[in-house]
Amino acid sequence: MKISSKTHRLYRLQQVIFYILLSLAILLLAKFSLQTNNSWDWTQNSRHTLSNTSRDFLQQLNTTIDIQIFISPNNEYRAVVEALINRYQEQTNHLNISFINPDFSPDLVRELKIQQQGEIVVSKAEKLEHLFDLSEQSLTNALISVSREQEQWLVFIEGHGERTPLNQANFNLSTWGAQLKQKGFQFQALNLVEHSQIPTNAAAVIIASPETAWLPGEIELIRNYIDHGGNLLWLTEPNTNQFLIALAEQLDIEFVAGTVMDPNAELLGITDPQFILVTDYANHPIGSATNSVTLFPQAVAMEHTNVASDWQHTALLTTQDNTWSETTVEPQQTSADFNYDVNEDTSGPLVLGYLLTRLHANDDDKEQRIAIIGDGDFVSNTYIGNAANLDFSIALINWLVQDDELIAIPVKTTLDSQLDLSRSESLIIGLGFLLVIPSILLSVGFGLWWYRRRQ
Questions:
Q1: Which of 190, 279, 329, 360 could crosslink 366 through cysteines, CB 3.0-4.6 Å?
Q2: Which residues in 360-383 are b (16+ Cβ under 10 Å) and which e?
Q3: How does pLDDT run across 295-339, given as a tens digit for each residue?
Q4: Which residues contact 61 (CB under 8 A, 6 or more apart)?
């Protein structure tokens, strides 16, 4: 076909217009990319995005916190640290970030006792936290810790076989204690026989499953502490709640006889019905911070006895309808031996935990808070890692000391770092890359060649 000069000019004009429009599109895209910052995190547990709890905390942060990162410019972890810090800076302007080269700041390194490359120092006024691992959990916990207006002391009563965060036995609470320390809490063990008063700076007193009877004088000390507006967490058990009946009467609580049974535990592969699954948290902020079911081994139920009480009772933990409280539980019994007896047992739903609130005895603007949970195993080293027990227990303490805005930060693990394929799936993928895709490409290429040859 003969191409005229007019056709040639139109073709050249078409090319010019195409390249002009292409250049404009590239410029507009470049400008758009500079003015916007959108990203999508497609990992299974969104590990490249801050959790909702971290974002909520940062957005309500109203005071400046200093973050010093001691890392060399050419360090292999520099990009990882910058990526983590950038996620925090996107949520708040109250973080004063500074990257410090430890090679050129030896005096500051000695002053702050820096131990390694990539170490992060989070500080506010006199409070200071050192971080040695690059994770959202550690950094947010450090921010929470230094942002507290005052030190929060938790007093653990001892002397009656109670669980303690200072001992690593399976029965005890050292794992829970380590998580609480990361969030800025301090502990003190207190024997009421040796010390006749509770420290005035105690944010809350914790009675963790006593195994022996209390002296009348010890009970009176706790009752006086409550009368004067003290916060309390009381963890009790089916066979030991009678040791503090006087305390239960003061709080208008009565325990249901027996041990709670839950056949729904089979949904998690647990054949022992003494493991209770709880998903009903009374639409309370503690429940909002608990991301799934919680597990309570060998729990006791309780009831609210006095409607006219000055306490406001909230049933925080409620079992499902098909549960019951078994009155005859022997050590040698198996799961098949537990059956509901209409004449002796109490049918569900049952309450495993109450929250009590009232106006503070000495300050009408302050709320007094008490939590009673019919199980102490759920925070023990053996069971705290099960289900959402850790999230629930941290949220419970934050509520108890009235740090409602300081919520638990979930641990993010790399859930999708490994791809497990069956033999047939591996074969299909292998054949696809080795045969199917090359065949498609060859067919397309041959088709184009054949089409052009016929023109």
A1: 360
A2: eeeeeeeebbbbbbbbbbbbbbeb
A3: 999 999 999 987 777 899 999 999 999 999 998 876 666 666 677
A4: 92, 94, 143, 147
H helix runs in 228-343, sequence order: 245-250, 285-288
Residues 249 and 372 in one domain: yes
DSSP, collapsed to helix, strand or coil, labels residue 315 as: strand
CATH number at residue 103: 3.40.30.10
Q: What is the pLDDT of residue 98?
A: 92
**Residues 243, 249, 252, 253: what is their CA dihedral angle, to the nearest 10 degrees?**
20
- In terms of residue numbers, what domain contains 343? 151-400
Last residue of a domain, one of 145, 169, 198: 145
- CA-nearest of 204, 301, 303 to 252 is 303
What phi and psi, each to the nearest 5 degrees, are found at residue 102?
-60, -25
| Per-residue model confidence (pLDDT) at position 3 | 63
Q: How far is CA 78 from the centre of its chain?
A: 27
User: First and final CA of the chain: distance in angstroms?
Assistant: 12
Q: For 346-397, what is each residue's pLDDT tens digit? A: 998 999 999 999 987 666 667 899 999 999 999 999 999 888 899 899 889 9
Write out the H or E segment, with its range, that includes residue 19.
helix 5-35
Residue owning tokens 């004063």:
96
